[in-house]
Amino acid sequence: MRSVGVMFLSLLIVLASACLSNAPAGEKTGTTSVPSPHTPETTPSSPPALSNATSPKISQQNVTSTTQTTPKRENSSQIQHKRTLNLSSVRSWAYWLQNASPEVIAKSGFDLIVMDYSRDGGDETAYTREEIAGIKRAGVIPIAYISIGEAADYRFYWNESWKTEPPDWLGPENPEWEGNYAVKYWEEGWRRIVFEYLDRIIAQGFRGVYLDKVDEYWFWAENGYDENWTAGQMIEFILQIANYARSKAGEDFIVIPQNGEWLLNYDNGSLLKTVSGWASEDVFYDGLKPSLWTDEKVPLLDRVVKAGKVVLVVDYLDDGTRSGEDLARILDFIEKARERGYVPYAALEDRELDELNVIPGVQPPR
Predict the structure, then answer these.
(1) Which residues form the Glycoside-hydrolase family GH114 TIM-barrel domain (predicted)?
(2) Which pTM value belongs to this model?
(3) CB-based contacts of 237: which residues, under 8 Å, 6+ apart?
(4) Is residue 249 a contact partner of residue 202, using CB atoms and an 8 Å limit?
(5) Which residues are within 8 A (CB) of 192 and not within 5 positions of it... i.e. 6 or more apart?
(6) pLDDT tens for residues 13-32?
(7) In the beta sheet, which residues pair with residue 118?
(8) Residue 117 and residue 99: Cα distance in Å, rounded?
(9) Which structural domains are found in the chain, ordered by start?
């Protein structure tokens, strides 16, 4: 079987190399704003006494699910989209956060796109409902990126006074990502902001959300809080997000967390039952080298596949040269992902996610 895979790999390299000049270029489009949101009610619990952190692979805790609210009835247009945009049929996806073009996305051939709600993260460049509808009409599922474990100083909710007088829920700046700050995601003030954010995303017509920084529970566990509790609070937050969004947008609204797969070790089944799938970075490759996380991530992601949920994996392994070595690495990643039932996206090594990485004959598959 492995020799057949190698022959197939070699054939694809030849075919891909012959088609390299046909990749589409990114575009920029106009700007507009979105409707004002409605703020939901949330009541987070108080944190327990501080204790030493423990390993997420050892500690486990059952977490009780929140009660789902009955969703509103969908109109005929929404029902038509639901028939054509089926998550279970997704075989390709792309990740484009900076200045994404709805027109390019619609023509790209990908089944699903993870994109920001605006071109540059601010309200003034937010996509219109009509632009998102155009993506859906093309048969592409639009999913909105949102960080629920960090706040960013370029988002609509940011107040410049927070840099000198931060609210109780705002933590330190991430030294690796300037302008991004850890948040105490169990606090009411931050949860209210996230629900306001969800209202904007739902109003734009996105089919779901892509929840980044769910692994922030590690940060707080390393800074004095009990890891069982921080993991449990993150699980509870994800469940609240899913319940709230589906009460407004319909029960088929997609919720996909990114990274933090170790949360499944704390789950009593409610989290895996509630989410639509899981996404993970650096599963097989960390840049141009094999990932050190593969042996830990794969069993957890396999658990998601076994539950009948989609798994999206993105490795930043494309150096952009389209050399034989580059294509061999890309195809090896794609083959390994598909063998396990994951949906792969080979991203550029720079991790900027500022363009659609189309590899003719390879990504998206024809």
Answers:
(1) 92-353
(2) 0.79
(3) 148, 185, 186, 191, 194
(4) yes
(5) 39, 40, 42
(6) 444 444 443 333 333 333 33
(7) 126
(8) 10
(9) 2-29+49-348 (3.20.20.70)
